[in-house]
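Renewal narrative, Specific Aim 1. Our central claim is that a sequence can be written position by position from structural information alone. The example that follows is taken directly from our test logs and has not been curated for this report. It begins with the structure tokens describing the chain, in the order in which they were read.
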């Protein structure tokens, strides 16, 4: 326990005093490392963002707004938001349930479930899209059944939502699992011993302790849902004004050599990325503070 206290005091002092020079590398080595890191970020992150906004505004603000207000662009924006609005809440429910099961219980298949959650990270989005075509397409496994009941999934909104859900479902669970394992079950057990029910424990004990990690996972999930291209490209059919999301609409505009309009619409994705980065940084600080506070509370209780 003394070791935990020392760690907590160290990080508390570090936040107040800023980074300390614990390494003994020569000054020139540190300068080179810093310059390399800055050049890398400038070349691969900052410069592309500058190019996007420069090309988007090259023909003036009026042309920029016209490209965004164009009917097909508005349709793509609407469809992107619809897919994200459906996929993210469903992945939120799955992520909380999976994290609760893996973090709090031991059961057969626990390791398998943990491995399967990472599946979308290892499978190419294009491959996952092809799998959904094989399952729900006209000649797919469920194709005859869907045609018989006049249900359309591939080349329609349901297929886009399913593809988006698949590529985004690990984010919430992956953020919550280590957080809930670190937190432990002591508070839930104490609440149960005092007569609290399952929903009371969740809303008043578990949720407040994981809220920042939950928001972090939802933020990453939303960002991926908005920017997904590969899987959605396969299942959408590229029907203009109907099944094109923002990334697909940008591809079509660029292939038609409408570069200014393509970058104008792409700037919306760049803006969402910057907003996601800001929210991510804020939530990371909150998560770190919460973990330190919970560690300190446990140590004081012991």
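The sequence written for that structure reads:
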């Amino acid at each position: 326990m003394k070791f935990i206290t020392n760690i907590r005091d160290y990080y508390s002092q570090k936040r107040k005093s800023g980074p300390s020079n614990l390494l003994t590398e020569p000054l020139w080595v540190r300068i080179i490392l810093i310059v390399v890191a800055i050049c890398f970020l400038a070349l691969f992150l900052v410069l592309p963002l500058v190019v996007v906004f420069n090309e988007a505004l090259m023909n003036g603000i009026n042309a920029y707004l016209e490209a965004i207000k164009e009917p097909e662009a508005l349709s793509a924006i609407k469809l992107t938001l619809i897919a994200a609005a459906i996929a993210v809440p469903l992945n939120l429910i799955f992520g909380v349930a999976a994290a609760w099961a893996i973090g709090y219980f031991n059961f057969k298949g626990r390791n398998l479930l943990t491995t399967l959650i990472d599946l979308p990270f290892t499978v190419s989005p294009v491959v996952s899209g092809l799998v959904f075509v094989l399952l729900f397409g006209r000649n797919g496994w469920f194709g005859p059944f869907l045609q018989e009941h006049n249900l359309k999934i591939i080349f329609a909104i349901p297929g886009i939502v399913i593809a988006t859900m698949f590529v985004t479902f690990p984010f919430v669970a992956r953020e919550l699992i280590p957080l809930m394992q670190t937190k432990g079950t002591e508070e839930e057990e104490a609440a149960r011993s005092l007569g609290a029910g399952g929903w009371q424990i969740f809303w008043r004990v578990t949720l407040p302790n994981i809220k920042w990690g939950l928001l972090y996972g939802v933020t990453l999930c939303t960002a991926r849902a908005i920017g997904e291209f590969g899987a959605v490209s396969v299942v959408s059919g590229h029907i203009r004004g109907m099944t094109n999301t923002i990334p697909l609409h940008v591809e079509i505009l660029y292939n038609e050599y409408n570069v200014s309009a393509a970058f104008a619409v792409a700037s919306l994705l760049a803006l969402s990325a910057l907003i996601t980065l800001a929210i991510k940084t804020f939530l990371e600080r909150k998560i770190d503070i919460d973990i330190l506070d919970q560690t300190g509370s446990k140590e004081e209780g012991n």
